[in-house]
Design goal:
Length: 263
């Protein structure tokens, strides 16, 4: 929904000017996918939008990831901005995170305009922080799905960045370094780092006719038996039977399918 301006004195010239502004906003939305002067969103210049646009996709995908991967329905969303993400329109990035998180669980789709209101209506609170990134990628966004304070339930966090080619990447899951694309169908795994685990997972998927596109693995420390996280991008449909078979492996502590796009 594009905001319109109030016209003082309904002269033909003023009406034409407003009509031109609205037409330009509609053109920008159709071309760029962003409502620059929509209600509840800040107006961005062309340069500001050019800077923030790659991070909008990252924000929405990280929101979707944490919403789907969290063990329980989150009560809070925490967003941490570092580098350019802290300078390029945090209000809009927050809305994109919430849109991704809500669209992963709701049948009725939301967008960056109404996502904050929908989140508030569902009792979902948002915490925002800016921080300095000392090492690695300087421009990052971290999104966490968290339970109510004081509970024993575990949250889930994911940190990502935008590469030079404009593609979004996840860099860490719950503080464990693991780099992966955020697209298509991803099998999210947590397991104990033991010999043969990856081979068994590959065998199960192969027996189910599922092809592995990429396999990203990270572990908390360089020691056998350490906690490990995997993001396995898969081609085609994945049956519940394949995921259930992987869950039964003794070293696997968690296995979930994460879908980006249509659920």
């Amino acid at each position: 929904m594009v905001a319109t301006a109030h016209v003082a004195g309904s002269t033909t010239e003023a009406q034409e000017e407003v009509g031109t502004q609205i037409a330009q906003q509609v053109r920008d939305y159709l071309a760029d996918g962003v409502m620059r002067n929509a209600v509840n969103l800040p107006a961005l210049s062309a340069e500001q939008y050019r800077r923030v646009k790659p991070y909008l996709d990252l924000a929405e995908r990280l929101g979707s990831l944490v919403s789907q991967a969290a063990a329980v329905r989150p009560a809070r969303i925490r967003i941490r901005y570092a580098g350019e993400t802290a300078e390029a329109g945090t209000h809009l990035l927050k809305s994109a995170v919430l849109a991704g998180a809500l669209n992963a669980v709701l049948d009725e789709k939301v967008n960056v305009v109404n996502a904050p209101a929908v989140a508030a209506a569902r009792g979902l609170t948002v915490e925002e922080e800016t921080r300095r990134r000392e090492h690695g990628f300087p421009n990052t966004l971290e999104v966490a799905a968290l339970p109510e304070p004081g509970t024993q339930q575990r949250g889930f966090s994911a940190e990502g960045t935008v590469l030079h080619d404009g593609s979004p990447r996840v860099l860490q899951i719950d503080g464990i370094s693991v780099e992966s694309q955020l697209e298509g169908t991803i099998l999210y795994l947590r397991n104990l780092d033991q010999p043969g685990v990856i081979g068994k997972i590959g065998t199960i998927l192969g027996e189910q006719g599922v092809n592995i596109a990429t396999f990203a693995l990270g572990r908390r420390e360089a020691a056998q038996g350490a906690e490990a996280v995997s993001l396995v991008r898969l081609d085609g449909e994945v049956s519940p039977a394949a995921v259930e078979a992987i869950r039964k492996l003794s070293a696997v502590t968690e296995a979930k399918l994460i879908r980006f796009g249509n659920r």
